UniProtKB/TrEMBL annotation:
The lineage of its organism: Bacteria, Pseudomonadati, Spirochaetota, Spirochaetia, Leptospirales. SUPFAM superfamilies: (Trans)glycosidases, Galactose mutarotase-like, Glycosyl hydrolase domain. This is Alpha-glucosidase. Belongs to the glycosyl hydrolase 31 family. GO terms for biological process: carbohydrate metabolic process. It comes from the Bacteria. It holds the Pfam family Glyco_hydro_31_2nd. Keywords: Glycosidase, Hydrolase, Signal.
Amino acid sequence: MFLTTLRKSLFGLCALYSLSFALVSCASGQIQFAKETISPVQVGNLLVSQSENKLSFVSKGNQKVFFSVSLSKAFLQAGRVDAKAKYRMASFKFVEKPVVFCTEQSLDSLVPEGKSLIIRGKVSGKDCQSDYKITVQSSQADQLDLQIQFSDPSLNRIWLAIESKSSEKFFGFGEQFTHDQMKGKTPFLFTEEQGIGRGDQPITAGANLLAGAGGNEYTTYAPIPHFISSENRSLFVENSGYSRFDLSQADELKIEYWDTNVQNHFRANIWLGKDARELLNSYTKKTGRYTALPDWAYGTWLGVQGGTEKVNFIVDQAKAKGNPITALWIQDWCGRRVTNFGDQLKWRWYADEKLYPDFKNFVKGMNQKNVQVLGYINSFLADTDPKKPGDDFTNPLLAEAKSKGYLVKNQAGEDYLIQTVGFPAYLIDLTNPQAVQWTKSIIKKNMIDVGLSGWMADFGEWLPFDAKLYSGIDAKVYHNIYPVDWARINREAIKEAGKEGKIVFFTRAGYSYSNQYSTLFWEGDQMVSWGKNDGLPSAIIGLTSGGMSGIALNHSDIGGYTTISNPLRNYHRPKELLLRWAELSAFTPVFRTHEGNRPLKNWQVYTYTDKNGVSSLSDEDTVTLFAEIGKIHYALKDYLKDLVSESTKTGLPVVRHNFLVEPNDEQLLEFPYQFFLGDDLLVAPIIKSGKTDIDVYLPEGSWEHIWTGKKFNGKSEVNVEAPIGKPAVFLRVGGKKETLLRKAFQQILTQK
């Protein structure tokens, strides 16, 4: 038997992550195999062959390669590492202690078993040895199912390397905010607070210094282990532990997954398709698709708080300007709590009668104005703040949850007290069936029964790494699942109340299968800034990248949220930023404002003076301009409804990445802050302060500038004026939806 033995350094299997998550290579990997063990094999739709020192898994039907692995080095390795997380404000820093690594691999057999191909061998190293079994099956020409198991259940790390081309590009990985394409990058996938600044300075350095909460280019609320590549293949990993995808090498894709010992296997799907659309269809067919939005969802959603008098005044003011207000989102329906972070909420899930006396009738009154009312909820229950002298806060729901054992526990078996931004709170244990039923009863009784048409279902990413859960599942494995279950519970409460299709809740945290349960996403807490990593530009990348991983219905807070007062630099929202963000949001499914965490420091879409003479930062010009932008969004209602309907059937996002619409145009990928609304509308928002014109790249075809009617030939870069209220938007001449869009823009131009 001819035995081939080759050694080559793989990818840092005994390495620890630094704070920047860089890998330090310190191990070599070898593979042993007998040539006759990998002679060509055919099983069902799958053909496996060796050529050029690699093993390829090919679709028999179309002869396209699902994936290949190199036979010049170990492509599969495993290990055991003890990991602990430093946890503060849902920002996680990991400290790892390596125990053993199996860096060497043998490939002993490759044989058909029933409809599957079974690959067996061993991984080994110092004090480490385990049999492995790889099961590969292709039940249809465009899908491959992959499963890897180890005989040693103590192994909790897996590393898998598959081949890539230097020209291959990768899109998706959930909702990313800095990079719209990941070749050359090393994203890690773990749901957490996105961070304050995420690399924009000086705020990131300040947030890290004070709270370790600055984040980085990969921190996100909604990571999803799914990508689509320019080779027209996509990969989705079922596991829920922490993971890292190393795309930094030209010829290789390296996948690392933690905590595989609990499930004792690694599971993935790989799809082939003629284009990214077909791949998204396959992926969402498995993981789920959004349902249609109710008719009222396509107007302006005013995010206002402050009590009955204030919100009534602002709704009436907006309507008087002709703003098509269809929803009022009042996050402080449950009460307002002022902390050192700003205006926050009481996190006890019933109406605050002081701010909103006779809340049920208040909701009815708004409905009579053809305005739906939305509230707020999260999976925390707030407690009294021991740092606030004389804090008279009480929470009967917390007392009930404690008495019934409905809360997440710490390692000592005590209710896990978590210091959130502003005050301490406890998480509901979503693995406890009784706690789930109790939570759903609160939603049905205190929210749906009083007439709310929706709510923000906030948070989901805060589960501590060392928590103890009712079901016994390891928190390391459940952490990424928690936000998915949070969405599922909200959805089930709506269904049980008989309100499916009438109520909309929007989530920010998520993971695989979130698109099956959430009715809508929003992008979380961006800074009120122009910052690339955490300001207005990042909201565009979040929309397009998330859409490539099944987040088809998404939007952002108009104007951003996180507002910081600091001696070095204030981050307060100016008028220009607010209106430019509104222009961007006019071309997304939902058009919703937010006052931010410090409303009096931010420019607002309304003018209001309270009984103490305190006025909002705004002017009449803003109210007028915001109404005009709101009319643009509303005029697109029929087009948006058509796109949402398409999404429910195909999984295609409403806001579309350039690669999804024009996959063959390499130059278009150099303009990541442009996007498509559907296929026939190209939008290029202003993303820099002081700019009133913009360079836009137009792909192949004929394009019409909607404000001037001027036509441009594609495959060219043009410069157009873009004053506030007239963002750079181009209609595809001859597009399938041209007639529908011309009708919408005729309405807009008439209004102007």
